[in-house]
Amino acid sequence: MLEVLGVKKKYKNGIEALKGVSLKIETGKKVAIFGENGAGKTTLLKIIATFLLPDEGTVTLEGVNIIKNNKYARKNITISTGMERSFYYRLTVKQNLEFFGMLNGLVGKELKKKVEKVIEKTGLEEYGKIRYMELSKGLKRRLDIARALLKEAKVYIFDEPCAGIDIKTRGGIHKIVNELGKEKIVIFATHEIEDLKKMDRIIAIHNGIKVGELLVHENRDCVENFVKGVC
Ligand SMILES: Nc1ncnc2c1ncn2[C@@H]1O[C@H](COP(=O)(O)OP(=O)(O)OP(=O)(O)O)[C@@H](O)[C@H]1O
């Protein structure tokens, strides 16, 4: 269980990105964080991933306060943000994954096997020897997801993984998310109705406040109205 309790975050420029957000996500569930541009989704995801500290509130994973226990958080939470600058432009797909795999403590045969596995999962087989700078936007995004999968985590966070992605790749991403969602906690920020319909639950955020929740399987026909109602 991941629990966010009363999380507030104000940036140095005075913007209150989160004004006291609380939510709970059970293991074995995939939850969408939905909200318009600037709603506070990325800020919330970064706080859960412990990339950013909240001003107030706590985040616990299986009862462990991850704000205070950064080591536990880094071991058990992985995030795909699509940030291009975090890759080595001149290294190939495989070399980038090997580098980040090593940072995750993988070595030798274990590293090789894991890199091959995530390349296969994200359909990057034919691009292994292509340098990062030569990849298309969609392929970069797939590599970013592959990197997040290098870690055997309890929580998988995807920040708008389908933005600018073609239909086939989107299907591949949902297959990965579905598989993970059976045993892990998956958090998926998105604006897209089609993505929302594939989640177990939608949490809507507006102006730094949680404004609604919808259980998708019980209310699949309501997703569009739910979305219209909160924005
Ligand atoms: N580093 C920062 N410094 C100052 N303000 C920031 C920073 N990051 C985000 N903000 C502001 O905080 C608010 C929430 O931003 P956030 O990126 O969390 O929203 P979002 O819901 O992810 O938006 P989008 O859908 O556009 O990615 C916005 O008003 C944004 O301008």
Write up what this structure looks like:
The chain has 231 residues and is of the alpha/beta class. Helix content is 35%, strand content 26%. It has one domain (2-86, 153-230): P-loop containing nucleotide triphosphate hydrolases (Rossmann fold). It has eight helices and ten strands. Strand 1 (2-10) and strand 2 form a beta hairpin. The longest helix is centred in the last third of the chain and has 17 residues, at 167-183. 39% of the residues are buried. The mean pLDDT is 92. The site of adenosine-5'-triphosphate (ATP) has 12 residues, from helix 1.
Name some characteristics of this structure.
about 230 residues; AAA+_ATPase; transport; about 35% helix; Rossmann fold; binds adenosine-5'-triphosphate; about 25% strand; alpha/beta
CATH architecture: 3-Layer(aba) Sandwich
Could you estimate the helical fraction of the residues in percent? 25-40%
Low-confidence stretches: none
Tally of separate domains: 1
What is the N-to-C succession of helices and strands? EEEHEEHEHHHEHEHEEH
Mean pLDDT: 92
Please report the number of helical segments.
8
Shape: globular
Tell me the name of the CATH class.
Answer: Alpha Beta
Give a count of the beta strands, DSSP E runs of length 2 or more.
Answer: 10
Termini Cα gap? 28 Å
Rg, rounded, reads 17 Å
Identify every distinct bound molecule in the structure, by name, code or SMILES: adenosine-5'-triphosphate
InterPro entries: AAA+_ATPase, ABC_transporter-like_ATP-bd, ABC_transporter_ATP-binding, P-loop_NTPase
Pfam families: ABC_tran
Keywords: ATP-binding, Nucleotide-binding, Transport
GO molecular function: ATP binding; ATP hydrolysis activity
